[in-house]
Amino acid sequence: MLKKEIIEKYNVPSPRYTSYPTILDWNHLSMEPKVFQNEFIRTEKGKNHSTSVYIHIPFCESLCTFCGCHKHITKNHTVEQPYIDALIKEWELYEKLNGGPIEVSELYLGGGTPTFFQANELKRLVVRITKHRASNIHFSVEGHPNHTTEEQMQVLYDLGFRRISFGVQDYSPVVQKAINRIQTFEQVKSVTETARKIGYTSISHDLVFGLPMQHIDDMEDSIEKTIKLKPDTISLYSYAHVPWVKGTGQRGFSKEDLPTSDEKRALYEYAKRALISAGYLEIGMDHFGLPTEALTQAMQSGKMNRTFMGYTTSATQRTIGLGASAISEYDFGYAQNVKSIKEYHKRINNNQLPVFKGHIHTYLDKSLKKHILSLMCNFETKYCPNSYIEQNLNNFAPAFEEFEKDGILEWKNGHLKITKDGQPFVRNVCMTFDPYALQKAEKPRFSKSV
């Protein structure tokens, strides 16, 4: 285990690297739809690219104050039908731009709260998007334990969904009150067992450490209850305190309400030890899985991938994002839809793709993206002679040597490998050769590593 002073040394703001470059460093902070369309036509039209589809359902009935996602709080369910109509129309715009039907290999319903929608509306959407589908399509959905019914899960299962993720966060009533996320163990147990009874083969629970009012006994209780339910995978996320980000409810509590860096680290270390003792294996960063889980096996075989949707077993050539604030990923770069639901509907009704910002990769971006993806998935990467890293080795070597001295990195003959103890600081290593992250910023940009 790393010493306390080493942990404090590397507990600095750092990107989570669900993309490279990160969204804060995109080179088209304002992207005209025409620019995006030209790139799509140049690189995507008529090509038989394998395709993932991410659909963002932004609606939630209440605000979880820890959440940094784009969402719209409402109890008005009349929004369902027009939003589904807009998603379908957006998909049709993509098929037109593609020059024909798009075969879908992976579909992910995220949010917000996808299970905000009635079962029949979810079915109408999925049936249309997957009209042309690969034989081995991967379906995933996020569910709120309080707002996920047996009917919804059964309908989605019948459509081909086999993976479902429930946001648990923490079972402490005090913590739940602080983050405005009230759900009992009995409710989580009920939806988990119902999903298992229906036939879902991959059930995931999301937990968060470092939440306001959270103490070690809260983590012990949450982990004990999680192990009782034995989900196939567990996401153990570090709470990201970013109150400067618009739309979060994090201004409702102060830093004094949060665990100290030492306390937060202790929460993580306890959870990690307990989960490994219960038979779970570490998967990349922040994730644990049973040995039988597909994601665990993908990691062990070096076939795991990381996208805006997190770790995945899929390695499709592009991700098309549908819905307000959704992000798309292509070989040429990234694009994000407008965040306002009103503006999203307006653009769709005018037969315009709702893209408003994006990034077109440089040659260097593509090269560094491969290294960062390899580090985030496999905790190692290799660089070739005359590569960017080797050409700038005089600049990088002092940092690599410092990591090596501190027990975080092994560095030899063009091979960078993160140590077991150093894995929680993989983001710090990635930052070393990320020219965007090394720029000095006037305002906070990222949450801390720990």
Task: Tell me briefly what this model is.
This protein is of the alpha/beta class. The protein is built from 15 helices and 19 strands.
Notes on the structure:
This protein is of the alpha/beta class. The chain has 2 domains: 1-24 and 362-450, Arc Repressor Mutant, subunit A, CATH 1.10.10; 25-360, Alpha-Beta Horseshoe (pyruvate-formate lyase- activating enzyme), CATH 3.80.30. Helix content is 37%, strand content 21%. The strands form 5 sheets. The protein has a 9-stranded mixed sheet with strand order 9-10-8-7-6-5-4-1-13, sandwiched between helices. A 3-stranded antiparallel sheet has the order 14-15-16, covered by helices on one side. Helix 4 runs parallel beside helix 5 (150-159).
Which CATH class of the largest domain?
A: Alpha Beta
- Give me the Rg, rounded: 22 Å
At the fold tier of CATH, the topology name of the largest domain is pyruvate-formate lyase- activating enzyme
Class inferred from helices and paired strands: alpha/beta
The total count of helices amounts to 15
Termini separation comes to: 15 Å
Low-confidence stretches: none
Biggest sheet strand line-up: 9-10-8-7-6-5-4-1-13
Oligomer: single chain
The helicity comes to 25-40%
Features:
nine-stranded mixed β-sheet; three-stranded antiparallel β-sheet; alpha/beta; Arc Repressor Mutant, subunit A; 450 residues; pyruvate-formate lyase- activating enzyme; 21% strand; 2 domains; 15 helices
List the helices and strands and how they pair.
Blueprint: H1 4-10, H2 33-43, E1 51-57, E2 59-60, E3 72-73, H3 80-98, E4 104-111, H4 119-129, E5 133-143, H5 150-159, E6 163-169, H6 173-179, H7 185-198, E7 202-209, H8 216-229, E8 233-238, H9 261-277, E9 281-283, E10 287-289, H10 294-300, E11 305-307, E12 310-312, E13 318-322, E14 327-330, E15 333-337, H11 341-349, E16 355-360, H12 363-378, E17 380-382, H13 388-391, H14 393-405, E18 409-412, E19 415-418, H15 426-432
Parallel strand pairs: 1-4, 1-13, 2-3, 4-5, 5-6, 6-7, 7-8
Antiparallel strand pairs: 8-10, 9-10, 11-12, 14-15, 15-16, 17-19, 18-19
Helix pairs in contact: 3-4, 3-11, 4-5, 5-7, 8-9
